[in-house]
Known about the structure:
The chain is mostly helical.
Amino acid sequence: MTIDMSMPGSSGLLNAVGKRDMKFFSNRYVLALTGAAGIGGFLFGYDTGVISGALLYIRDEFPAVRDNYFLQETIVSMALVGAMLGAAGGGWINDAYGRKKSTLLADLMFALGSLVMCAAGGPYILILGRLLVGLGVGIASVTAPVYIAEAAPSEIRGGLVSTNVLMITGGQFFSYLINLGFTEVPGTWRWMLGVAAVPAIVQFVLMLFLPESPRWLYWKDEKAQAIAVLEKIYDSDRLEEEVELLASSSMHEFQSDNSARYLDVFKSKELRLAFFAGAGLQAFQQFTGINTVMYYSPTIVQMAGFTSNKLALLLSLIVAAMNAAGTIVGIYLIDRCGRRRLALTSLCGVVISLVILAMAFILQSSSSLCMAAANGTCQGVLGWFAVAGLALYIAFFSPGMGPVPWAVNSEIYPEAYRGMCGGMSATVNWISNLIVAQTFLSIVGLVGTGLTFLTIAGIGVLAFIFVALYVPETKGLSFEQVEQLWKERAWGSHGNRQSLLGATP
């Protein structure tokens, strides 16, 4: 399979930027598409966040769960197993059937899984429901960023894709709010888990009336439908430029047998470099601890000395609110400061805050420091110190390492491989997420909370080095310009003469 990327007039196309001055709120149609697709992100956030509070009450209802760390971790992480499978298959579904149908399928999984969990009579039926919800999460994690990116003007693409991350963090915040609101209601955890069926049904209905991604339509030779969608996004001058770029890119992809294969990602040097950067970002997003915090924040708060379920949920709600607020900052900065600089700055703060959090727990566990305070004053101060470290961590993580991996992965792959590579990268995210969720409590039990967070800080240092070395800046670039960037990284200044799937070193 050979896709020749040397196109007549390509340099002119890649250098022509036209009047790229569209603002974030200037096109309501684009915002409507982003908002509707972002409901998938909201469900993603809600279903991954709600379990942190529900788990406190599931332990109370099921004695088999109460004293079994492995079963607790399995209830949390089974959604991640489903997400891993959903992301792996979701990339192929996206490329074969489109972004719209993929979203509808995810909604069905969300609704069915939520209802199964709500009615669960034991921990194993609950685990089945978590698996179904996870399938929806995995498909949505691939589909929503790509759908938004392919409808977004390049100059605001990062902000719009980051809006999906805002919906994720907003879903997590809402899940904590629901957790707190249902603390005194009979059947507490069933309401917490079952309410997610409502937004899934809402998105399913909305998506029936929304169009398919214009780039996917054009790639599938549905040019008239694609242009009809693009006409609602761009004015006439900009429309002509975008269609010309799209036509040139599609023309050379059609020179192939028009079938992308997983093996191609590893045969092509450009795709290998892009996938390495994208998948690496996704892995480091998880191994620097974000979902450890989001899944287990009430448990971490209780480890810090706040034993009340209600107080633990309230403090965790504040952490989730900061996560959502930080994402709004990220939306503002990502198309101004750039993806790379934002990620590097974020990681610096993440490492510092994890060290603070680790030291709070290490000092708290030191009997020589705290036994002198019989009334628990020292423990209380260090407990609040740990909560402050947790809040500082979120303040640094959420604007940068929260949205940047998803934004980068939505824009660094060629059209023919965007769903496939996006799915592969998301699968790396979910595998990493699963490892963290399934092992966190066990590692804490083995080496202590302080040393666990100190280890995560060390991973943050490795993440900084990775971003500095392997992640390029894609701020404001068209998809075609991003492709050219990878060719130049792979082959030097003569990269446009190379075949996408040509010789590898």
